[in-house]
# Entry
Amino acid sequence: MKFLEEAAMHHDIGVCRTAFPEIGCRGGEPYIRHGLIGREILEKEGFPRHALVCERHIGVGITVEDVISQGLPLPARDMVPFSLEERIVCFADLFYSKKPGRIGDEKSIAGIRSGLARFGEQKVKILDKWIMEFEQPD
# Structure
């Protein structure tokens, strides 16, 4: 639990070096790189497990195929959540925005599905698998 709490608190640390003025970030890197930047920051600080959570939490994960097909400014490798903690942080992150005025607004499953569908049905299938894994029955 301690690791999960720490990883959740630090998973977006790389945002500070991105160009996302809407949330006050005036760095020089594209926002899509914030996971990779976070990994670099936390590895330098001696937190290799936390660093992997940073790199692997974007969307439902970024595959090498995503990097190539979308021309993303990322290394051509899989950056998908593997451990339980990585999946939990990634899943939880889907429900909230960093945009001012919307930080506390929880997104609906339908809204998340719709957003992921733009990147392919496989992304929605990953979400559905996580819903089955993490949602508690009534």
Remarks:
- The chain has one domain: 2-134.
- The chain is about 50% helix and 5% strand.
